[in-house]
Amino acid sequence: MHIAIGNDHAGPELKKELLSLITDLGHTYHNHGTDTTESVDYPDFIHPVAVDVRDGKADFGIIICGSGNGANMTANKYTEIRSALCWTAELSALARQHNNANILSIPARFVSEQVVKDMVKTFLTTDFEGGRHERRVTKISQCC
After folding, report:
1. pTM of the entire structure?
2. Of 47, 98, 133, 144, which is the active-site residue?
3. Are 12 and 36 in contact, with CB atoms under 8 Å apart?
4. Residue 83 and which of 2, 20, 47, 139 are 20 to 30 A apart at CA?
5. Catalytic residue among 9, 32, 65, 86
6. CATH value of 2-143 in 3.30.300.10, 3.40.1400.10, 3.40.50.620, 3.30.70.120
7. CA-CA-CA-CA torsion for 11, 46, 39, 109, nearest 10 degrees?
8. Is 144's pLDDT higher than 60?
9. Residue pLDDT, tens place only, 53-89
10. Catalytic: 144?
11. Does position 104 have pLDDT exceeding 60, yes or no?
12. Is 32 a catalytic residue?
């Protein structure tokens, strides 16, 4: 799998750990994020992730900011994107199973490194259940 990843200044250390995890799991990645803690504008690093996922250049995206909210809101401006803000592995599983999420948004300042690793592993290995959920997911982008 190919993963697009982006982060603002709240996430470079966490991202570094995730890039190692992604590689260890046998996946490739494209790093759209900043590598410093110098203040930046998160949309500049999130839009490229959403575009990669939308255009099929990446199978999934991972986005990181302090609360996860700004990154999540930015990614979800794209009708083809279903970004899920998660803070447990169980939520990341449900985001995939029930919502067919294609981007995982991580609140860097509110989760431990181990929790994030568990969330990412879960997100990347959990399939969409389809069925009754398919009908609901189809309705998500009807407003645009």
Report:
1. 0.95
2. 98
3. yes
4. 20
5. 65
6. 3.40.1400.10
7. -30
8. no
9. 999 999 999 999 999 999 999 999 999 999 999 999 9
10. no
11. yes
12. no
